[in-house]
Amino acid sequence: MKLHIGFDDTDSPRGGCTTYVAALIIEKLHGLGVRFIDYPNLIRLNPNIPWKTRGNGALCLRIMCEDSLYGDVKEQVITVIEENSDLSYKGTDPGAVFLVGDVPEEVKRFAKEAIQGIVRMRDALKIIRKFGAEAVGYNAGRGIIGGLAAIGETLEGDHTFELIAYRKRENWGSPRRIDESSVKEMDKKMAGLTFNNVDPESGRILITPRGPDPVLYGVRGETPEAVKRAHEMIRSYEPIECWVIFRTNHGTDAHLKRIPSIRDARAYDPVILQGIVVGSPKIIPGGHVIFQIRDETGTIDCAVYEQGGRLREVARELVEGDLVEVYGGVRPPSRKNPKTVNVEKINVLNLAEKIVLRNPLCPVCGKRMKSMGRSKGFECYKCGFHGPNLEKMRVKVERNISPGLYVAPPRSERHLTKPLSRYGLEKKHYSHGFSEIIPYDAFWCKVMI
Ligand code: ATP
Prior knowledge:
The protein is α+β, with helices and mostly antiparallel strands. The chain is about 20% helix and about 30% strand. It has helices spanning about 20-30, 70-85, 105-115, 120-130, 145-150, 180-190, 225-235, 310-315; strands at about 1-10, 35, 40-45, 55-65, 95-100, 135, 160-165, 195, 215-220, 240-250, 255-260, 270-285, 290-295, 300-305, 325-330, 340-350, 355-360, 370, 380, 385, 395, 405, 445.
């Protein structure tokens, strides 16, 4: 039988990582003799949902096995989840879903909604019942949502790969020890084949997380071969327990949905929204830039955070009348702030004229004049000419930005955001359609030392 196993929500800010649970499950399933019909899938869901731990990632393993093995497979999956979830943490609600056969269109649609919006447990359970799938949940069991969504995202369009190397248990929680210069060298050699290894603005290494989780590093790239080669170039001063190559929707913009008007911007949705800039951008304490856009249905605030680097500078240069497309997550209104788009990208479509008012030039000697006070005209410093009826001049100034797409630097990018370096590399389809076997050692390796 063809079996899809989706699971989510095993970790907490105190530790753990659902991708590591996947690594453990893969080893157990291999031991049972199942065959894998896809790389393990790491599916990022809507990055704006408030109850995520970190990156809102869910996992799916797609296998082929004898019908008689189904019970053993289920038992192994459940045991690993139980033994490796932070069940005593409030808000960790693990869930697993088992679906036999091909993935129904309705499950695919559910996944799209979970990536681009908010879905309900009720709907997940209805679908699970309808297609005779099985689900197991702990605590509130919310991970069932992510599990079903991971099954439904079959990554038939654009996708990327990530090789995640895991630390030995005794090192969890201690500072990660890898040779940063080897990462920078790898980044140069593997340009175009890997992405977001190093932040170009700050030089910061981006492949290592900072928390107490078991991940040593993750290398993102276009093909399994590329991420494996990149991994072989990284020098680590601590032992690696194992590594896994995942097929993912990282760096594909899968979360962003174009919405027709500002009125349609729903809280927590990732959106692409067109509008005309109103007034001048403001810089608020903390260095964040806020600008407003409008269309015929209303206005909405847009925020570019201090970490936005160059994107923040672009936002500051916007002027009234510019036509822009903003990409980002809709933050609901709070007591202090109205509904706001947290901007990930800005596409400047059309620049308005930037006009500033300047004192007039002296009609006698050509020097810039000085104001004599409100409605009292102007006086020339140099030749003393008085012009009581002269008015300020409207001067068109050069714009410091040009139309085009501007993206936040990799250090502040979300997993799903397509980096500039991936534009043009999008994959149109994934041809094998779960009909071929992917050798286990192509994506999973226990490191023996
Ligand atoms: P990590 O990435 O470190 O594994 P996480 O950030 O994925 O952690 P979880 O602990 O998995 O966070 O919490 C996310 C929870 O939200 C899961 O229970 C998942 O089922 C649920 N969820 C994810 N996306 C949606 C959505 N679009 N609508 C409703 N619930 C969702």
